[in-house]
Specification:
This protein is of the alpha/beta class. The strands form four sheets. It has a seven-stranded mixed β-sheet, with helices on both faces. The two termini are 48 Å apart.
Amino acid sequence: MRYLPHTDEEIRDMLAVIRRGSLDELFCSVPDSCRYEGDMPLPPAMDEWQLTEHMEKLAAAMAIDDKARVLIGAGSYHHHIPETIRAIMSRGELLTAYTPYQPEMAQGTLQGIYEYQTLTSRLLGMDVANASIYDGASAMAEALLMGLRVAKKKTRVAVSAAVHPHYRQVARSYLAPTGYELVELPVGEDGRTDPALLASLGDVAAVAIQSPNFFGVIEDLEGLAPLVHDAGALFIAVFSEPLAYGLLKSPGACGADIACGEGQSFGMPRSFGGAALGMFACRNEFVRNMPGRLVGQTKDLEGKRGFVLTLSTREQHIRREKATSNICSNQGICTLIASMYMASLGASGLAELARLNHSKAEYLKSGLHAAGAKVVFSAPTFNEFVVEFPGDFRPAYQRLLERKIVAGLELGRFYTEHAGRYLFCVTETTDRKTLDAIVAEVNS
Protein backbone atom coordinates (compact mmCIF):
# COMPACT_ATOMS: atom_id res chain seq x y z
CA MET A 1 0.00 0.00 0.00
CA ARG A 2 1.44 3.38 -0.99
CA TYR A 3 1.79 6.15 1.55
CA LEU A 4 -0.34 9.15 0.56
CA PRO A 5 -0.04 12.02 3.07
CA HIS A 6 -2.95 14.27 3.92
CA THR A 7 -3.18 17.56 2.07
CA ASP A 8 -3.20 20.89 3.90
CA GLU A 9 -6.89 21.26 3.04
CA GLU A 10 -7.71 17.85 4.55
CA ILE A 11 -5.81 18.71 7.73
CA ARG A 12 -7.71 22.01 8.08
CA ASP A 13 -11.03 20.22 7.57
CA MET A 14 -10.23 17.63 10.23
CA LEU A 15 -9.07 20.23 12.70
CA ALA A 16 -12.26 22.21 12.10
CA VAL A 17 -14.39 19.18 12.96
CA ILE A 18 -12.69 18.79 16.35
CA ARG A 19 -12.57 22.57 16.86
CA ARG A 20 -8.82 23.02 16.85
CA GLY A 21 -7.06 25.86 15.06
CA SER A 22 -3.74 24.13 14.40
CA LEU A 23 -1.77 20.92 14.94
CA ASP A 24 0.05 22.57 17.85
CA GLU A 25 -3.31 23.24 19.49
CA LEU A 26 -4.24 19.60 18.92
CA PHE A 27 -1.33 18.57 21.15
CA CYS A 28 -1.74 21.33 23.73
CA SER A 29 -2.17 18.75 26.51
CA VAL A 30 1.47 17.65 26.10
CA PRO A 31 3.60 19.55 28.68
CA ASP A 32 6.31 21.86 27.34
CA SER A 33 8.95 19.80 29.16
CA CYS A 34 8.02 16.81 26.99
CA ARG A 35 8.11 18.68 23.68
CA TYR A 36 10.98 18.76 21.21
CA GLU A 37 12.26 22.29 20.66
CA GLY A 38 13.30 23.45 17.21
CA ASP A 39 13.23 21.66 13.88
CA MET A 40 13.81 17.92 13.65
CA PRO A 41 17.23 17.12 12.06
CA LEU A 42 15.72 15.34 9.07
CA PRO A 43 16.87 15.41 5.44
CA PRO A 44 14.73 17.36 2.98
CA ALA A 45 11.63 15.66 1.60
CA MET A 46 11.89 13.70 -1.64
CA ASP A 47 9.37 13.25 -4.37
CA GLU A 48 8.19 9.75 -5.24
CA TRP A 49 10.77 9.19 -7.99
CA GLN A 50 13.66 10.33 -5.80
CA LEU A 51 12.46 8.17 -2.91
CA THR A 52 12.22 5.08 -5.12
CA GLU A 53 15.76 5.64 -6.37
CA HIS A 54 16.98 6.17 -2.81
CA MET A 55 15.43 2.91 -1.61
CA GLU A 56 16.94 1.02 -4.54
CA LYS A 57 20.40 2.32 -3.59
CA LEU A 58 19.91 1.22 0.00
CA ALA A 59 18.81 -2.25 -1.15
CA ALA A 60 21.86 -2.55 -3.44
CA ALA A 61 24.15 -1.82 -0.48
CA MET A 62 22.96 -4.89 1.43
CA ALA A 63 25.36 -7.82 1.58
CA ILE A 64 22.49 -10.27 1.37
CA ASP A 65 19.72 -10.22 -1.22
CA ASP A 66 17.03 -12.62 -2.39
CA LYS A 67 19.59 -14.52 -4.47
CA ALA A 68 21.76 -15.36 -1.47
CA ARG A 69 21.87 -18.80 0.11
CA VAL A 70 21.36 -18.34 3.85
CA LEU A 71 22.18 -21.36 6.04
CA ILE A 72 20.85 -19.77 9.20
CA GLY A 73 17.71 -20.95 10.95
CA ALA A 74 17.83 -20.32 14.72
CA GLY A 75 14.08 -19.90 15.02
CA SER A 76 13.26 -18.46 11.58
CA TYR A 77 13.36 -20.73 8.54
CA HIS A 78 13.37 -20.31 4.78
CA HIS A 79 10.99 -22.80 3.16
CA HIS A 80 9.38 -22.98 -0.23
CA ILE A 81 5.92 -21.38 -0.19
CA PRO A 82 3.42 -23.08 -2.51
CA GLU A 83 1.99 -20.73 -5.12
CA THR A 84 -1.51 -21.80 -4.09
CA ILE A 85 -1.08 -19.87 -0.83
CA ARG A 86 -0.18 -16.61 -2.57
CA ALA A 87 -3.07 -17.02 -4.98
CA ILE A 88 -5.71 -17.76 -2.35
CA MET A 89 -4.48 -15.22 0.20
CA SER A 90 -4.68 -12.43 -2.38
CA ARG A 91 -8.47 -12.80 -2.45
CA GLY A 92 -10.13 -9.84 -0.80
CA GLU A 93 -12.55 -11.89 1.28
CA LEU A 94 -9.62 -13.62 2.98
CA LEU A 95 -7.02 -10.86 3.27
CA THR A 96 -8.06 -9.51 6.65
CA ALA A 97 -6.85 -9.79 10.22
CA TYR A 98 -10.08 -8.46 11.72
CA THR A 99 -10.82 -9.78 15.19
CA PRO A 100 -14.39 -11.17 15.28
CA TYR A 101 -15.86 -9.21 18.18
CA GLN A 102 -19.20 -9.77 16.41
CA PRO A 103 -18.60 -13.43 15.50
CA GLU A 104 -22.04 -14.04 14.05
CA MET A 105 -21.09 -11.56 11.30
CA ALA A 106 -17.74 -13.20 10.55
CA GLN A 107 -18.51 -16.79 9.62
CA GLY A 108 -15.69 -16.98 7.07
CA THR A 109 -13.13 -15.74 9.58
CA LEU A 110 -14.38 -18.15 12.22
CA GLN A 111 -14.33 -21.11 9.85
CA GLY A 112 -10.75 -20.30 8.87
CA ILE A 113 -9.76 -20.25 12.55
CA TYR A 114 -11.65 -23.49 13.19
CA GLU A 115 -9.78 -25.26 10.38
CA TYR A 116 -6.48 -23.91 11.73
CA GLN A 117 -7.28 -25.21 15.22
CA THR A 118 -8.16 -28.62 13.83
CA LEU A 119 -4.98 -28.94 11.76
CA THR A 120 -2.80 -27.64 14.60
CA SER A 121 -4.30 -30.10 17.08
CA ARG A 122 -3.63 -32.99 14.71
CA LEU A 123 -0.06 -31.89 14.02
CA LEU A 124 0.81 -31.48 17.70
CA GLY A 125 -1.20 -34.45 18.96
CA MET A 126 -3.28 -32.33 21.32
CA ASP A 127 -6.99 -32.14 22.13
CA VAL A 128 -7.48 -28.45 21.46
CA ALA A 129 -5.63 -25.48 19.97
CA ASN A 130 -6.36 -21.77 20.29
CA ALA A 131 -6.65 -19.13 17.59
CA SER A 132 -2.91 -18.39 17.82
CA ILE A 133 -0.68 -16.10 19.87
CA TYR A 134 1.66 -13.39 18.61
CA ASP A 135 4.78 -15.52 18.14
CA GLY A 136 6.66 -18.51 19.48
CA ALA A 137 8.36 -16.59 22.28
CA SER A 138 5.14 -15.14 23.72
CA ALA A 139 3.46 -18.53 23.26
CA MET A 140 6.01 -20.14 25.58
CA ALA A 141 5.70 -17.30 28.08
CA GLU A 142 1.91 -17.69 28.07
CA ALA A 143 2.33 -21.44 28.55
CA LEU A 144 4.46 -20.85 31.65
CA LEU A 145 1.84 -18.46 33.05
CA MET A 146 -0.82 -21.05 32.28
CA GLY A 147 1.17 -23.63 34.25
CA LEU A 148 1.30 -21.25 37.20
CA ARG A 149 -2.48 -20.74 37.00
CA VAL A 150 -3.10 -24.47 36.99
CA ALA A 151 -0.69 -25.09 39.89
CA LYS A 152 -2.05 -22.07 41.81
CA LYS A 153 0.26 -22.03 44.85
CA LYS A 154 3.53 -22.85 43.10
CA THR A 155 5.87 -20.00 42.29
CA ARG A 156 8.61 -21.48 40.10
CA VAL A 157 8.91 -22.61 36.49
CA ALA A 158 11.82 -24.32 34.77
CA VAL A 159 13.08 -23.78 31.23
CA SER A 160 15.84 -25.66 29.45
CA ALA A 161 18.94 -23.63 28.60
CA ALA A 162 18.63 -25.17 25.11
CA VAL A 163 15.38 -23.26 24.52
CA HIS A 164 15.80 -20.39 22.05
CA PRO A 165 17.56 -17.50 23.91
CA HIS A 166 14.95 -15.00 22.71
CA TYR A 167 12.15 -17.19 24.07
CA ARG A 168 13.85 -17.36 27.45
CA GLN A 169 14.37 -13.60 27.50
CA VAL A 170 10.69 -12.98 26.72
CA ALA A 171 9.69 -15.40 29.49
CA ARG A 172 11.90 -13.55 31.97
CA SER A 173 10.32 -10.25 30.90
CA TYR A 174 6.82 -11.70 31.42
CA LEU A 175 7.68 -13.04 34.88
CA ALA A 176 9.86 -10.17 36.15
CA PRO A 177 7.01 -8.08 37.68
CA THR A 178 5.08 -11.09 38.99
CA GLY A 179 7.33 -12.43 41.72
CA TYR A 180 7.56 -15.84 40.05
CA GLU A 181 10.96 -17.45 39.58
CA LEU A 182 12.40 -18.90 36.39
CA VAL A 183 15.01 -21.65 36.75
CA GLU A 184 17.14 -22.85 33.82
CA LEU A 185 17.95 -26.53 33.32
CA PRO A 186 21.49 -27.25 32.07
CA VAL A 187 22.38 -28.87 28.76
CA GLY A 188 24.34 -32.12 28.70
CA GLU A 189 27.34 -32.90 26.55
CA ASP A 190 25.13 -34.58 23.94
CA GLY A 191 23.16 -31.35 23.42
CA ARG A 192 20.05 -32.54 25.24
CA THR A 193 18.54 -31.12 28.41
CA ASP A 194 19.94 -32.65 31.58
CA PRO A 195 16.94 -33.54 33.79
CA ALA A 196 19.04 -34.22 36.92
CA LEU A 197 18.06 -30.90 38.49
CA LEU A 198 14.33 -31.62 38.23
CA ALA A 199 14.09 -33.74 41.36
CA SER A 200 15.62 -31.01 43.54
CA LEU A 201 13.51 -28.11 42.25
CA GLY A 202 10.52 -28.85 44.44
CA ASP A 203 7.59 -26.51 43.83
CA VAL A 204 7.87 -26.22 40.05
CA ALA A 205 4.61 -25.48 38.22
CA ALA A 206 5.79 -26.17 34.67
CA VAL A 207 8.85 -27.30 32.74
CA ALA A 208 9.52 -26.11 29.17
CA ILE A 209 11.70 -28.17 26.82
CA GLN A 210 12.28 -27.27 23.15
CA SER A 211 12.58 -30.02 20.54
CA PRO A 212 14.31 -29.70 18.18
CA ASN A 213 16.11 -27.31 20.51
CA PHE A 214 18.14 -24.21 19.63
CA PHE A 215 21.10 -26.39 18.68
CA GLY A 216 18.93 -28.46 16.35
CA VAL A 217 19.10 -31.43 18.72
CA ILE A 218 16.06 -33.67 19.06
CA GLU A 219 15.18 -33.97 22.76
CA ASP A 220 13.97 -37.20 24.35
CA LEU A 221 10.50 -35.87 25.11
CA GLU A 222 9.12 -39.33 25.90
CA GLY A 223 11.83 -39.87 28.48
CA LEU A 224 11.45 -36.40 30.01
CA ALA A 225 7.65 -36.44 30.32
CA PRO A 226 7.41 -38.90 33.27
CA LEU A 227 10.24 -37.11 35.08
CA VAL A 228 8.43 -33.79 34.76
CA HIS A 229 5.14 -35.28 35.88
CA ASP A 230 6.81 -37.03 38.82
CA ALA A 231 8.02 -33.59 39.88
CA GLY A 232 4.37 -32.47 39.93
CA ALA A 233 4.74 -30.07 37.01
CA LEU A 234 3.08 -29.56 33.64
CA PHE A 235 5.23 -30.58 30.70
CA ILE A 236 5.50 -27.88 28.00
CA ALA A 237 6.93 -28.94 24.65
CA VAL A 238 8.28 -25.92 22.77
CA PHE A 239 9.30 -25.73 19.11
CA SER A 240 10.60 -23.19 16.63
CA GLU A 241 10.51 -25.54 13.60
CA PRO A 242 7.06 -27.21 13.44
CA LEU A 243 8.00 -28.99 10.21
CA ALA A 244 10.00 -31.41 12.37
CA TYR A 245 6.72 -32.97 13.52
CA GLY A 246 6.15 -34.21 10.01
CA LEU A 247 8.90 -36.70 10.85
CA LEU A 248 9.04 -36.88 14.66
CA LYS A 249 6.43 -38.05 17.15
CA SER A 250 4.04 -35.26 18.10
CA PRO A 251 4.44 -33.59 21.52
CA GLY A 252 1.09 -35.03 22.60
CA ALA A 253 2.20 -38.57 21.74
CA CYS A 254 5.32 -37.97 23.83
CA GLY A 255 3.34 -37.00 26.94
CA ALA A 256 3.36 -33.20 26.78
CA ASP A 257 0.54 -31.29 28.47
CA ILE A 258 1.05 -28.11 26.42
CA ALA A 259 2.67 -27.70 23.00
CA CYS A 260 3.59 -24.23 21.79
CA GLY A 261 6.01 -22.50 19.49
CA GLU A 262 6.60 -20.67 16.25
CA GLY A 263 4.61 -21.45 13.10
CA GLN A 264 6.45 -19.13 10.68
CA SER A 265 7.74 -22.12 8.70
CA PHE A 266 4.20 -22.86 7.52
CA GLY A 267 3.91 -20.55 4.53
CA MET A 268 5.21 -17.26 5.92
CA PRO A 269 8.34 -15.57 4.52
CA ARG A 270 10.92 -14.39 7.02
CA SER A 271 10.69 -10.74 5.93
CA PHE A 272 13.32 -9.38 8.35
CA GLY A 273 11.66 -10.98 11.37
CA GLY A 274 7.92 -11.10 10.69
CA ALA A 275 5.18 -11.97 10.48
CA ALA A 276 5.15 -14.63 13.15
CA LEU A 277 2.58 -17.14 14.37
CA GLY A 278 2.42 -18.41 17.94
CA MET A 279 0.95 -21.92 17.82
CA PHE A 280 -0.56 -23.12 21.10
CA ALA A 281 -2.34 -26.36 21.99
CA CYS A 282 -3.04 -28.34 25.15
CA ARG A 283 -4.91 -31.25 26.64
CA ASN A 284 -8.64 -30.80 27.11
CA GLU A 285 -8.45 -30.85 30.92
CA PHE A 286 -6.53 -27.56 30.88
CA VAL A 287 -8.64 -25.76 28.27
CA ARG A 288 -10.20 -23.26 30.68
CA ASN A 289 -6.78 -22.04 31.70
CA MET A 290 -5.56 -21.62 28.14
CA PRO A 291 -4.91 -18.07 26.87
CA GLY A 292 -6.50 -16.70 23.74
CA ARG A 293 -9.80 -17.78 22.28
CA LEU A 294 -11.36 -20.88 20.78
CA VAL A 295 -13.71 -21.25 17.84
CA GLY A 296 -16.23 -24.09 17.87
CA GLN A 297 -18.66 -25.63 15.42
CA THR A 298 -22.43 -25.68 15.99
CA LYS A 299 -25.77 -25.59 14.15
CA ASP A 300 -28.17 -22.71 13.71
CA LEU A 301 -31.96 -22.82 14.15
CA GLU A 302 -32.32 -24.23 10.64
CA GLY A 303 -29.84 -27.03 11.30
CA LYS A 304 -27.10 -25.48 9.15
CA ARG A 305 -23.47 -25.67 10.23
CA GLY A 306 -22.14 -22.50 11.83
CA PHE A 307 -19.14 -21.32 13.83
CA VAL A 308 -19.00 -19.48 17.14
CA LEU A 309 -16.49 -18.21 19.66
CA THR A 310 -16.73 -21.05 22.14
CA LEU A 311 -14.35 -19.67 24.77
CA SER A 312 -13.10 -16.11 24.90
CA THR A 313 -13.79 -15.11 28.51
CA ARG A 314 -10.09 -14.85 29.32
CA GLU A 315 -9.65 -11.80 27.10
CA GLN A 316 -9.34 -8.20 28.19
CA HIS A 317 -12.32 -7.09 26.10
CA ILE A 318 -14.51 -9.42 28.21
CA ARG A 319 -12.92 -9.69 31.65
CA ARG A 320 -10.94 -6.44 31.51
CA GLU A 321 -8.53 -6.25 34.49
CA LYS A 322 -9.25 -9.90 35.41
CA ALA A 323 -8.14 -11.22 32.02
CA THR A 324 -5.49 -13.93 32.12
CA SER A 325 -3.91 -12.94 28.82
CA ASN A 326 -3.63 -10.03 26.44
CA ILE A 327 -4.16 -11.88 23.18
CA CYS A 328 -6.42 -9.36 21.51
CA SER A 329 -5.97 -10.42 17.89
CA ASN A 330 -6.49 -13.79 16.26
CA GLN A 331 -3.86 -12.97 13.63
CA GLY A 332 -6.31 -14.02 10.97
CA ILE A 333 -3.88 -13.77 8.06
CA CYS A 334 -1.16 -15.84 9.73
CA THR A 335 -3.51 -18.58 10.92
CA LEU A 336 -5.13 -18.82 7.51
CA ILE A 337 -1.77 -19.05 5.77
CA ALA A 338 -0.66 -21.82 8.14
CA SER A 339 -3.95 -23.64 7.53
CA MET A 340 -3.48 -23.44 3.77
CA TYR A 341 0.10 -24.66 4.07
CA MET A 342 -0.78 -27.69 6.20
CA ALA A 343 -3.79 -28.52 4.05
CA SER A 344 -1.82 -28.10 0.81
CA LEU A 345 0.93 -30.49 1.87
CA GLY A 346 -1.16 -32.89 3.92
CA ALA A 347 0.32 -35.44 6.32
CA SER A 348 2.28 -37.27 3.61
CA GLY A 349 3.60 -34.01 2.14
CA LEU A 350 4.78 -32.74 5.52
CA ALA A 351 6.52 -36.07 6.15
CA GLU A 352 8.24 -36.01 2.76
CA LEU A 353 9.36 -32.41 3.21
CA ALA A 354 10.64 -33.13 6.72
CA ARG A 355 12.68 -36.09 5.42
CA LEU A 356 14.15 -33.87 2.71
CA ASN A 357 15.21 -31.27 5.28
CA HIS A 358 16.76 -33.92 7.48
CA SER A 359 18.63 -35.68 4.67
CA LYS A 360 20.08 -32.45 3.28
CA ALA A 361 21.25 -31.38 6.73
CA GLU A 362 22.86 -34.78 7.28
CA TYR A 363 24.61 -34.48 3.91
CA LEU A 364 26.23 -31.20 4.93
CA LYS A 365 27.00 -32.48 8.43
CA SER A 366 28.85 -35.53 7.09
CA GLY A 367 30.66 -33.39 4.52
CA LEU A 368 31.91 -30.92 7.12
CA HIS A 369 32.92 -33.76 9.42
CA ALA A 370 34.94 -35.34 6.60
CA ALA A 371 36.57 -31.95 6.00
CA GLY A 372 37.84 -31.87 9.57
CA ALA A 373 35.07 -30.06 11.43
CA LYS A 374 33.84 -31.44 14.74
CA VAL A 375 30.13 -32.10 15.17
CA VAL A 376 29.69 -30.71 18.68
CA PHE A 377 26.68 -32.69 19.89
CA SER A 378 26.21 -36.45 19.50
CA ALA A 379 22.41 -36.55 19.85
CA PRO A 380 20.29 -36.75 16.65
CA THR A 381 19.38 -33.50 14.91
CA PHE A 382 16.71 -32.41 12.44
CA ASN A 383 17.69 -29.65 10.00
CA GLU A 384 20.17 -27.77 12.20
CA PHE A 385 23.43 -28.76 13.85
CA VAL A 386 26.46 -27.21 15.56
CA VAL A 387 30.03 -27.63 14.33
CA GLU A 388 33.44 -26.51 15.51
CA PHE A 389 36.21 -25.94 13.00
CA PRO A 390 39.84 -26.88 13.69
CA GLY A 391 41.06 -23.37 12.85
CA ASP A 392 39.62 -19.89 12.47
CA PHE A 393 36.53 -20.21 10.24
CA ARG A 394 36.06 -16.46 9.78
CA PRO A 395 38.21 -16.08 6.63
CA ALA A 396 36.35 -18.93 4.92
CA TYR A 397 33.06 -17.47 6.14
CA GLN A 398 33.93 -14.14 4.55
CA ARG A 399 34.92 -15.74 1.26
CA LEU A 400 31.63 -17.61 1.17
CA LEU A 401 29.77 -14.42 1.99
CA GLU A 402 31.33 -12.76 -1.04
CA ARG A 403 29.79 -15.60 -3.07
CA LYS A 404 26.37 -14.85 -1.51
CA ILE A 405 26.50 -17.85 0.85
CA VAL A 406 25.87 -17.18 4.54
CA ALA A 407 27.55 -20.15 6.21
CA GLY A 408 25.88 -20.53 9.58
CA LEU A 409 25.44 -18.52 12.76
CA GLU A 410 28.29 -17.96 15.22
CA LEU A 411 26.96 -18.94 18.67
CA GLY A 412 29.13 -16.75 20.88
CA ARG A 413 26.54 -13.97 20.97
CA PHE A 414 24.03 -16.37 22.59
CA TYR A 415 26.26 -18.82 24.49
CA THR A 416 29.72 -17.69 25.56
CA GLU A 417 30.76 -21.29 26.13
CA HIS A 418 30.09 -21.98 22.43
CA ALA A 419 32.03 -19.02 21.03
CA GLY A 420 33.64 -19.90 17.72
CA ARG A 421 31.14 -22.65 17.02
CA TYR A 422 28.60 -22.33 14.21
CA LEU A 423 24.96 -23.35 13.95
CA PHE A 424 24.10 -24.47 10.42
CA CYS A 425 20.58 -24.86 9.03
CA VAL A 426 19.66 -26.66 5.81
CA THR A 427 16.15 -26.70 4.36
CA GLU A 428 14.69 -27.94 1.10
CA THR A 429 15.56 -24.60 -0.51
CA THR A 430 19.33 -25.22 -0.27
CA ASP A 431 20.75 -26.99 -3.29
CA ARG A 432 23.59 -29.53 -3.36
CA LYS A 433 25.88 -27.13 -5.23
CA THR A 434 25.77 -24.72 -2.27
CA LEU A 435 26.44 -27.47 0.26
CA ASP A 436 29.39 -28.76 -1.76
CA ALA A 437 30.76 -25.21 -2.05
CA ILE A 438 30.81 -24.83 1.74
CA VAL A 439 32.59 -28.15 2.22
CA ALA A 440 35.10 -27.29 -0.50
CA GLU A 441 35.84 -23.94 1.15
CA VAL A 442 36.48 -25.66 4.48
CA ASN A 443 38.78 -28.13 2.74
CA SER A 444 40.79 -25.42 0.97
